[in-house]
Amino acid sequence: MKKTGTWLAIGLVLTVGLTPAAAQGKKYTIVLIPGLTTDGFYITMRKGAEDAAKKLGVTLSFQGGPEFNPTVQIPVLNAVIARKPDAILIAPTDKQQLIAPLRAAQAAGIKVITVDTFIGDSGKYQTGSGAADFPLSYVASDNVEGGRVAARALAKAIGNKGKVYVSNVKPGISTTDQREQGFKEEMKKFSGITVLPTQYNDNDSNKAASQFAAVLARNADLAGVFGANLFSAQGAANGVKTSGKTGAVKVVAFDAPESIVNDIKNGTIDIAIAQHPAEMGAKGVEYAVAALSGKKIPAQYGTGYTVMDKSNIDDPKVQAFIYSS
Ligand code: T6T
User: Fold this and answer.
1) Which atom of ligand 1 is nearest to the CA of 173?
2) Whole-number pLDDT of residue 9
3) For residue 25, how far is its CA from the centre of ligand 1 (angstroms)?
C-alpha cells in the first residue's frame, strides 16, 4: 500500500521514537546528493526524503549533477562539505572514487549515510575494518537479489532457452554490478541459456538502443535482454521496437519510469522490477535525524521491490510504485 504523508510520519516516529527536531529546538540541515538529478529514480527518492524532512522538522536540500559520473559528483560533494550541513545522504557514483571525498565529510563532523549505492566492496559499514567502513548506514534495495529475480523472470519469458545479454551502465557502480552478478549467478542454473557479453552504455539510452541492434545483428536468434537500470532498460526497449522485435525478443527491466506502463501494455517489456526509492529517501532522513539525536542506527536497511507485468500493471497499488518525473 502506498504510504501517505501522515502514515509515513507516524511510521517514522514509531520506528525510532523520533520527535520532530524543531520541537527540540534544533534545525538540522541534511543534503541529499543523488547519482544524477534528472533520473526519475532519484526524483522519487527526493520526494520521500522531503516528506520525511517536513514531518521531522529538518531542512532537506537536493544537490547533484546532470550525469551519473564521479568526476561530476565529487565537486558537488566538495561544495556541499564546505557548507557544513549536519548530514549528507549520498548515492555514490563509484565504489572506490567516492571513498576519500566522503572521508573528508566525516572528518568535518558531518554524518554520512549512503542511499541506493555503497562505497567499498560490500555495503557493510561499521564493522571496524576496511577503508570504506565509516558511513553510518546503507539504505538500499538488495541488488544481488534483484538480479536473481530478473534472471528467473527472463528465463521464464524465453522458455528456459536461448541467448540473452545484460545491458548495463559501467563497471564500478555497486548497484548495477550487483544486479549483473545476481543475474549471471542465477542464469547458471539454466543449462539451455547462454549469457552473451555485457554491453556497457554509460547510462545513455541511445547507446543502449544501438548496442541492442548490434547484438541482434550478430545473433539473429537473440531471445532476451536484461536492462540493469532505467536508462539501460529504456534503451533496450527502444532497440527492440526499432528492430521490429517487439514480443520476439523479451525484455526484463530494472526500474519503473512512467514509460513502463505503455511498454508493458504494448508487450515491449515483459517484467519491470520497481525499486522503492521514496522509502530509501524517507528512511535515510529518519536515520540521519536519529544519528544526529545521538541514537544508534542500523548499519544497513533494505527496501523492497514491486514486480510489474501485464497482469498487475493496472492495479493502483502497483502503479503507486511508478517513479515520478
Ligand atoms: O537503478 C537506479 C539506481 O538504483 C542505480 O544505482 C543507478 O540507476 C538508477 O538511478 C536508474 O537510472
Assistant:
1) 6
2) 38
3) 36
How far is Cα 173 from Cα 177, in angstroms, rounded to an integer? 6
Q: Which residues of the chain have pLDDT under 50?
A: 1-14
φ and ψ at 76, to 5 degrees? -65, -45
Q: Who contacts 47 (Cβ-Cβ below 8 Å, separation ≥6)?
A: 278, 281, 324
Burial classification of residue 27, based on how many CB atoms lie within 10 Å of its CB (0-12 exposed, 13-18 middle, 19 or more buried):
exposed
**Ligand 1 close to Cβ of residue 28 (< 6 A):** no
What's the Rg (C-alpha) of the chain? 20
ipTM attached to this prediction: 0.99
Burial class (CB in 10 A: 0-12, 13-18, 19+), 317: exposed
Q: How far is the CA of 324 from the centre of ligand 1 (A)?
A: 14
Q: How far is the CA of 309 from the centre of ligand 1 (A)?
A: 20
pTM of the predicted structure, to 2 decimals: 0.93
